[in-house]
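Input for the complex:
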Amino acid sequence: MQDPDPLPWGAQDRFQAHFIVRKNDVENPLDYTARTVLSTSGHFGSKKITDITWNGGKIAEVLNSDVSLTEMIVNQSPNDAIIMVEPTNEGIRIYGKWKNSFEFGVSEDLFQIYDTIAHHLKKFAGIKISSTKSKKLETKSKSDKDIVELPKIKGTMPKGWS
Amino acid sequence: MYDSEPETFVIKSVPEKFSDILETIGVSSTPKEIATDDVENDDYYSRVFSQTTRMITNKGCLDIKGKNIDVIQIIQKG
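Predicted:
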């Protein structure tokens, strides 16, 4: 008789993007290991992040000291705010939770968060840093300019509209 | 049925699709041929964290320009 509830097999509809900083032979891997611990309020759809802290090795202390990074993460959804940093043989990986193919992607803010973490990792590991600080400020001012207040629509619905 | 135009679409790999997403947020990237980067030939997790996935499939890499992130690797569960 055929199994009425067969086990699924093969690759699942779950994707993850690993944002990698190249570094071979990390001396003390635990120093480069960190993850966010969230403080939240509310439940389900109305769940909001009130604060985050980094838990882990020495890099967690560095990341905790960056207040602007914390602010950026607090503004993310609870799923996106879970970020892991861990070293492997070929590089230090920054990644979030698994996402299905519809949700899979990265927003500008989330990429900025990953890039800032990569900046701290490079600084901590003594790797040459690309000049993103100025670019970050540029994008911030640009986004401020982009915010245009839309005029409020006034009026009533036509007769018979219900 | 036969009068309608056939639907045409370009088949893209996962890194190519991800590269398109990055382009929309102003990040330039280059998708690479699968299994051509060093990061694909080693462990994808350090196993320091508990409950990391055991069975994973490599979907390829992207090179990032002008950012602190050097490379992005896409992996699929299972």
